[in-house]
Amino acid sequence: MKRRWAMVIDMDLCTGCGACVAACVAENNTPTVGESEAGKGRLMQWIRVVRYFRKEEHDETRAIFVATPCMHCEKAPCEIVCPVYATYHDEDDHVNAMVYNRCIGTRYCGNNCPYSVRVFNWWDYKREKPLDEQLNPDLTVRSRGVMEKCSYCIQRIRRGKETALSEGRPIRDGEVLPACAQTCPPGAIRFGDLDDPESAVSRMMKDPRRFRLMEHLGTEPSTVYLKKMRAPGR
Amino acid sequence: MAGEPRVVIGLFNGVEKAAQAAHALRSLPLPEENVTTISSVPLPDGAVTRDRRPIRFPWIVVVFWLAGALGGLALTLVTYQVYPMITAGKPINTVPPAIIVSFEGGMFAALIATLVFGFRSIGLGPFRSGRKVFDRRIHEGRIALCARVDTGDQERLAIDAMTASGGEAVRAEEGEL
Amino acid sequence: MKGENHLSRLDESKLYDELSRSNLPATKRWYAGTGALLLVVLASVAAFVYMMFTGLGVTGLNRPVMWGVMIILFVFWVGLSHSGTLISAILRITRATWRAPVLRGAEAMTALALMVGGLYPLMHLGRNWRFYYILPYPSARQLWPNFRSPLLWDAVAITTYLTGSLLFLYFGMIPDLAIARDRAAGWRKKLYTFLAAGFRGTHEEWRRYHVASTLFAVIIIPVAVSVHSIVSWDFAMAMVPMWHSTIFAPYFVAGAIYSGIAGVISVMVILRKAFRLEKVLTPDHFDNLGKLLLTFTLVWGYFYFSDYLTAWYSRFPEDWEVIRSYSGHYLPLFSLLVACNFLIPFPMLCLKRVRQSIPAMFAVSLVVNVGMFTERVLIVVPSLARRNDPSIWGSYFPTWVEISFIVGSIAMFALIYVIFSKLFPVVAISDVKEQLFHTTDRTIGGANLSTVVSGEGKEEGRET
Prior knowledge:
The structure holds three protein chains of three kinds. By secondary structure, chain A is of the alpha+beta class. Chain A has one domain: Alpha-Beta Plaits (2-Layer Sandwich). Chain A is 21% helix and 18% strand. Chain A has a four-stranded mixed beta sheet with strand order 8-1-10-9. Chain A has a two-stranded antiparallel ribbon with strand order 2-3. Chain A starts with a strand and ends in an 8-residue tail after the last strand. By secondary structure, chain B is α+β, with helices and mostly antiparallel strands. The two termini of chain B are 20 Å apart. The interface between A and C is large, with 45 and 44 residues.
């Protein structure tokens, strides 16, 4: 069954707590790189919470948090530049798929992503005992030299589809959630199937607050945002 | 045996003497295509001898260019058909990349064809046939004049004509031009 | 002496001895120098093997600057390889009278620089040992490569150009190999006999040889233009500010030819000194090369200014941030670029005194290549460091591994060139002889001038 997965991030609700980042790291076997590597710009987290400060006259400084996972663009610029088809657009789920064991590490996709959501395995990251017992068996641990990125927790999507198929029923809205959506305390991250007209994301897509990051680039992301509204005095 | 082709070869100091000798050989008469020079610098056509055989191999190179271009086109378009993967929402059969790869494929084929058919046209490498006459002293600045003659009278006349025009080491050898 | 061509005044064996000095048996000094170069290359290879086994983390690369010194070296060396194509092919076709002594050195530069440059796309891969995924072969994964990717066009183009330039170099050497064959002994004779493929020098052979040489030159020029255009499209196809520019293809080709001419000048100066070729490589040759270099200083400056002007004027936010960094964090590099690529070469090359002075030309050519290397750095790094999303702006500085690659690439090029010049004639002796053969003296009034034949000659055998 074909689905069109999408994610809606409501910036009104996002508090910038970073629980989504921690959940993603736990779910997807993301290595922890350490302070000095992080300082060099080599963080491996698939989702990042960007913090922008805004100071207006006669007002206190405010922060805006933009949680930035992979946009899963319909016209993903990362897909077309990979010389070996290690990343392509999955037509069954309408997500941007990443195939680790095909990747030869040219990093062109990382350069071509305008959102810079792709990360590269610069080393073979070691996990000291007992941290290796924390690994999720549902997906691989990537070797050095391959690119990786947020996959909308494709392992959970597959598990959800298998369960629904075996039980002979359609997937319920909210049954399949990536780790970030599952964990977000204020519920700012919503995930679902756009092809289902009753799903939460289908309704939220019609919200006039909806915008896409760097919309002028024409990448048609599946991850959309709902603009933060500021009432007077808020 | 009389009538078997041999080559008369002689060395000359300078283009003028060689041209004189070639003229004498042509008046023997010896057909133009049976006389040639061996020199370490290329002589202008008509200076001593003239080569009238047409050079056709560039056309073969053009054919190979087209074949290579078609090969490149096939490679891209077949790849797109057999392994259709959607990337960036672009159409499966993208034309500009096919043009680029076809162009390079054509050039690649043309380069290889120029080497192979150039060798064939010149008679180098694997396309060499028969024992070819040669004299190492051309690298000292001499010009060797060679004429394919029948043994007997023609050979003697050729040797005489060359010696009369100032040729050195004029002799007859077994071999081909 | 009037009317007698210049070649007939010389003893051709002596001329050959003079021009083929590089082929004399190797001395201890040669072995020492070559050994030193080999050591540097091996150190660089060791650094690469270390990188391959440890991971690309040993470089200075990060997010967002995922391409660094290795890609810079790739573009630089492929650019340098445009030297031979321009000088050899175009000068052959236009029958420039001063081309003869420069041809071989330039053609060798093309092939050898390409060999060095072509390594870097393989070296910068995260999983180098899987590079063969780029080749279309029946695999168990049932996948062929993605021809929409500029990196695939790179693979096709570099293969074609490398093959073409090696064939061009070899084919151009055949008459010289024939001379070498006839004068050598021992293993060298066997080598030259095989390579000369039985070339003798008959009139028919020469005519066909000229047609084939010209055909090679005619084919290799579009290939060279396409190769560096395709290399530029690695950048231009990307959604990175200041990369996504339509001018990249002609700009890169012009830059490559610019850097190539400078490279040829540097190499010619070294060859002239090392093999005592003062009589063949005269200040007039460097004068002409200098005029070519001046032309390309202007062409490069024109393209660079056009590219900069459009981005600067429209102030598209993404491009503007990169340009702002040129006067900010990258100001030292940008100043070096403008100085070395334009401010220094342009006035100097305008002066005939500079162009005819060989030490000055050597200095200018080195300055130009430093400038061109800086230009590659400024193309790759600031655009990535100041790209679309400001939240991950970063910076880049090469580590010892990448510096060893820079040094190693120069050493590798020098090493292959030294070995090449030892084995093969480094001056196009047949072309020099042909040039001398076509040159005679003529008295016009009170002046004695040397004139050169042009054209093929008419039916009656009169030279025009």
